[in-house]
Amino acid sequence: MATNYETFEYDVLVIGAGGAGLRAAIEASAAGVKVGLVCKSLLGKAHTVMAEGGMAAAMGNVDDRDNWMVHFADTMRGGQYVNNWRMAELHAKEAPARVHELEAWGAVFDRTPDGKILQRNFGGHKYPRLAHVGDRTGLELIRTLQDHGIHQGITVHMEYTIVTLLKDGDRVVGAFGYDRERGRFKVFQAKAVVVATGGLGRAYKITTNSWEGTGDGVSLAYHAGAELRDMEFIQFHPTGMIWPPSVKGLLVTEAVRGEGGILKNKEGRRFMFDDIPDLYKAQTSTDPEEGWRYTQGDKNAKRPPELLTRDHVARCINREVKAGRGSPHGGVFLDIAWIKEKIPNTAEHIKRKLPSMYHQFMQLANLDITKEPMEIGPTTHYLMGGIRVDGDTQAATVPGLFAAGECAGGLHGANRLGGNSLSDLIVFGKRAGEFAAKYAKENSAGKVNDAQLEEASRRALEPFEREGSPEGPYQVQHDLQEMMQDLVGIVRREEEMAKALDGLKQLWSRANKVAVASNREYNPGWHTALDLNHLLTVSEAITRSALDRQESRGGHFREDFPKKDPEAQKYNTVVFKAADGSMKLRREPIPPIPAELKQVIEEMK
Ligand SMILES: Cc1cc2nc3c(=O)[nH]c(=O)nc-3n(C[C@H](O)[C@H](O)[C@H](O)COP(=O)(O)OP(=O)(O)OC[C@H]3O[C@@H](n4cnc5c(N)ncnc54)[C@H](O)[C@@H]3O)c2cc1C
């Protein structure tokens, strides 16, 4: 073991301190093993904290017809049946217990008049199901997990970035990274590693994701030999801010529609009534009045079409804009102010239900959402695919490696329902922590050899040693984001994606030549140069997978194959690193679904 680098030894190392990482760390620690937690930014600053609308759990507090079976069927229907059904089952069954556990740990949820956890409507969920805290649910989730976690003896390494996983033979035995402040290298030796690094929105130009969303964990796992699945399924959230340009992409929570917000084109038409997919016809209202009653809790009413799944709503918005019926800045209108026709004291009501949205638009766009409609458009939001894991244990396909949260694929299939991510984090974060701890107890520490560390360090320092480079990392990052947005975005075509694959080759070659100036101490240019490896890896995985799936399903829409292909419902797309270092793809048949789960799906149709 090398002595050149500061080295930490743990039983379980968790990379990422969002909801999934924190929950995994808590569980592993509770199992009595030594746990280290590494995060790229400050503790508490992950994407999880930005989550607004809520976490889905079939507690039946607002509508007692809800139960795990309805939630399971909704998740499978939303994912268009390419989900890991075992994960969908576990998620639906275990989410209520995980939410109650948060409550016991001090989370202060909004309440029903009789004191239960309040649940709100969200797209694709049959009944009001999202436990929430106004529109700041993620903040409460992360606060609660942090408060609980600090009493568990977890060691936290903040502002440390992992650049590669370390292996002993086939097994993952640790990680290598640097601290952002001084740029010093650190070695983490661990018997088991949990990756919980979140999504990859930063591969695109318009996104809800912060600078951290560069797909690191997905890429780290891939390069360590783990398989990725369903990488073609990217969620373009229908409602992001589009004006002013400085905030383009920022999320406008689905809770606005859950509280009665409606979508209109420039002609004032509620265009969502124009196209209701067959799969949802039985559950969707064709009458605006009935839709309004649904949002106000009428159990006999059907949901308004604004609460159809995100993939569909995003495409309808795209259609309106393309047809010249968009808003002045290239989106459509989202109107919550209209509810003044229905309820008194509207301004106070909206401010109470959607405080962050009110402030977001007031401060960033000088627009009062209690009086005027918002201008919104689709924005890259979420990765449905990710590291391929075992549904029960969250073990990746490489020994010693586990994954949870947004970087792990399977639960959401081709499209995620709103609110199913926060519950994913707590259900599968817990499982990842539990099984990583078990693995750590059953296995001794592996060996990290010096050559591996020297190679990791040499590669990380390369950008400082290149001279005469015409460009720094930002230009490459910018060009990649533009290209992915234009060629592998919300509407895809074969020739455009083939062009993107060529483009990726050129971008790889440019990335391998970028140079950075100055020294290792707090050097964002250097950090960006290292992030490029991840961004390019995940972009290639998305593009190859999207090219291969010759149909339209969920978040993946092919203009050249606009229909669903029943044959394509039978497999998942899997990418992996071949022995020669190239990215390879195969179609993995979906295991047969057990009869009892099949029956649940049929009964809920
Ligand atoms: C604006 C917004 C609103 C949302 N609202 C909702 C909602 O209401 N309901 C819902 O269910 N979902 C919502 N989502 C989605 C949900 O918040 C995310 O999918 C989820 O929080 C991801 O959690 P995570 O733990 O997987 O990762 P994150 O919360 O993204 O955390 C990732 C962690 O990994 C660390 N990390 C990353 N790379 C490295 C590296 N190389 N080395 C070390 N550490 C690293 C980061 O620093 C961070 O600590 C929303 C997302 C956004 C962006």
Q: What is the count of helical runs?
A: 17
Task: Give the termini distance in whole angstroms.
Answer: 58 Å
Helix content: 25-40%
Bound molecules: flavin-adenine dinucleotide
* Overall geometry: globular
Low-confidence stretches: none
**Share of β-strand residues:** 15-25%
| Structural class by secondary-structure content | alpha/beta
Describe the biggest sheet?
7 strands, mixed
Number of strands: 19
Radius of gyration: 23 Å
What is the average of the pLDDT values? 96
SSE arrangement:
Blueprint: E1 6-15, H1 19-30, E2 35-39, E3 55-56, H2 68-78, H3 85-104, E4 119-120, E5 130-131, H4 137-149, E6 155-158, E7 160-168, E8 171-179, E9 185-195, H5 216-223, E10 228-229, E11 234-241, H6 255-258, E12 262-264, H7 278-281, H8 288-295, H9 310-322, E13 332-335, H10 346-353, H11 355-365, E14 374-383, E15 386-388, E16 401-403, E17 408-409, H12 420-442, H13 450-465, H14 473-487, H15 494-511, H16 524-548, E18 571-577, E19 583-589, H17 595-603
Parallel strand pairs: 1-2, 1-9, 2-6, 9-16, 15-17
Antiparallel strand pairs: 3-5, 4-5, 7-8, 8-9, 10-15, 10-18, 11-14, 12-13, 13-14, 18-19
Helix pairs in contact: 1-4, 1-12, 2-3, 3-12, 5-16, 10-11, 14-15, 14-16, 15-16
What can you tell me about this protein's structure?
With 605 residues, the protein is an alpha/beta fold. Helices cover 36% and strands 17% of the residues. Helix 10 packs across helix 11 and helix 14 runs antiparallel to helix 15 (494-511). The protein is globular, with a radius of gyration of 23 Å. Flavin-adenine dinucleotide is lined by residues 15-21, 38-41, 46-48, 50-55, 137-138, 161-162, 177, 196-198, 208-209, 212, 216, 251, 382, 405-406, 418-422, 425.
